[in-house]
Amino acid sequence: MSRPSVVVIGGGIAGLAAAWELTGAAEGPSAETPRVEVIEASTVGGTLATATFAGRTIDVGPDGFLARRPEAIELITEMGLADQLVDIAASGASIYLREALYEIPRGLALGVPTSRQDVASLGGLTWRSRLGVLRDQWLPARLKVGEDIAIGDIVRTKLGRELAYQVVEPMVGGIQAGRIDHLSARSLFPALYEAARAGGSLTRALTTPAATPATAPPAPLFATLRGGIGSLASRLGERLAERDVAVRRATPVLALRQSTHGARRYDVDTADTTTAADAVILATPGAVAGALAGALDPALAALSELRSASVAMITLALTRGELDLSFPGTGVLVPLATPWRGADSMLTTAITLLERKWPHLVEGDEIVRVHVGRSDDVRFAAMSDADLVARVVAELNTILGSFPAPNAWLVRRFPNSLPQYEVGHQALVDAAKTAAARRHLALAGNAYDGVGIPASIGSGRRAAREVLAALT
Ligand SMILES: Cc1cc2nc3c(=O)[nH]c(=O)nc-3n(C[C@H](O)[C@H](O)[C@H](O)COP(=O)(O)OP(=O)(O)OC[C@H]3O[C@@H](n4cnc5c(N)ncnc54)[C@H](O)[C@@H]3O)c2cc1C
């Protein structure tokens, strides 16, 4: 038979990394390398998006990655882009509590205070939070913890509602665009899960050296690329083309069928073509993988239950010097349900000062980015771009005390883009991965091994190694 054929469905960073690994990664293709086709419904790079705005190249989606993890750095080096790496220039952030900004103390473990001093320094919190930490340290609340539990259940029971919803949710829930009452402690915050399982004081357990490094490095080391994170996806696309990998754009896969004829296992259908494949990597959002492969196995069908949050990023250019930013750090977090006019609540979940993070962007207008959207807040989706900009500018005027009219703006929407690792996620994903492996399928992407860019890259490469092993 001719070389084996592998189809990668989804050309986000996970699918591209999978294709790179399938074709020999840094070492390059060999006689055993399969024929690889990447089929992408929209644009290559998926969520990664770089654009020209206010006269410079900026990321309008993800703008950096955790450089303490090896996967992104490794791939960037293999792409010959290591000389384009830029380290983050600032750390820390502030939080908007009761109409004022407070610097977030450095001792927090992913949002969870580890001392009474942490809480005292957040002046917007009431005595309830201080009492919550005191009680946790001397008379910790009991909590029954099973195979998994929501982050919210742990923090609310142990430390009280105010800390849970005003501090932990904006931090943990903000990264995931989700609600701590649904998000899985086991998947997203293993040290919190273990501390809750062990019983006793949460705040004391999270200050132990074992808990801190894995979950909450004191100063996360982030990096970006001078040409934007999107340049990693473009370079990967070029390198894959050099290896004769067919990367098809704007071509949704409509069906994945077990082949009833011919020598190969699967037929992968688009509107116009059918590709025969010996193995398939599903590098789409989890629910899409469930829809495409669900008929093959109930454990794969269960992936359809995975929910994703829709978010949007609004990038604003301001005349330099017009904005008075007297607070330190790279941005501001805004708790959910922060009151807005009348009975309404703010749309803004976070503000990022892109130039404080990335010094190579300092030139011309000042750039500020606003984040909106949560798993249960899609109010922004019904608004036009112009209305959304007007609304967040008004909110920033309140949060920051004053905010000038922007010279330019850019709205980028990310529908169903952030997978929700809800309670029970690990068990569902483990079962689906096992079912996939039995069938010459593999699952890749941010729904499985972590949401960040390094985890997504790692997931793609792992899926490729699984498929290569199955084919030999
Ligand atoms: C707004 C935002 C900001 C973020 N910021 C950061 C950050 O700063 N740092 C960080 O580390 N991470 C960040 N993340 C997370 C990270 O960017 C993503 O998790 C990661 O890029 C996901 O890559 P992926 O390949 O798994 O998924 P995606 O990029 O979602 O790719 C999946 C691809 O599958 C395609 N697809 C779907 N259905 C089909 C079909 N039927 N046929 C063919 N193709 C299909 C889609 O078009 C898409 O291109 C951010 C995410 C978002 C949404």
Describe the model.
- The chain is an alpha/beta fold.
- Among the domains are: 5-44 and 229-306 and 421-471, 3-Layer(bba) Sandwich (FAD/NAD(P)-binding domain); 107-215, protoporphyrinogen ix oxidase, domain 3, CATH 1.10.3110.
- It has 17 helices and 20 strands.
- The protein has helices at 13-22, 70-78, 116-121, 127-138, 151-159, 161-176, 185-188, 190-198, 202-207, 211-215, 230-242, 286-293, 298-301, 354-357, 385-399, 425-437, 453-471; strands at 5-9, 35-39, 50-53, 56-59, 65-66, 85-87, 94-97, 100-103, 222-225, 246-248, 255-258, 266-269, 274-277, 279-282, 308-318, 331-333, 348-353, 366-372, 408-419, 441-443.
- A seven-stranded mixed β-sheet has the order 8-7-16-17-18-15-19. Strands 10-2-1-14-20 form a five-stranded parallel β-sheet.
- A hairpin with a 2-residue loop joins β3 and β4.
- The radius of gyration is 23 Å and the shape is globular.
- It starts with a strand and ends with a helix.
- The structure holds flavin-adenine dinucleotide (FAD).
- Residues 9-15, 39-42, 46-48, 61-65, 252-253, 283-285, 288, 311, 313, 414, 417-418, 445-446, 451-453, 456 line the site of flavin-adenine dinucleotide.
- Flavin-adenine dinucleotide binds at residues 9-15, 39-42, 46-48, 61-65, 252-253, 283-285, 288, 311, 313, 414, 417-418, 445-446, 451-453, 456.
Low-pLDDT parts are 212-219
* Termini separation: 13 Å
Instruction: Assign the CATH architecture of the domain at 5-44 and 229-306 and 421-471.
Output: 3-Layer(bba) Sandwich
CATH superfamily of the domain at 5-44 and 229-306 and 421-471: FAD/NAD(P)-binding domain
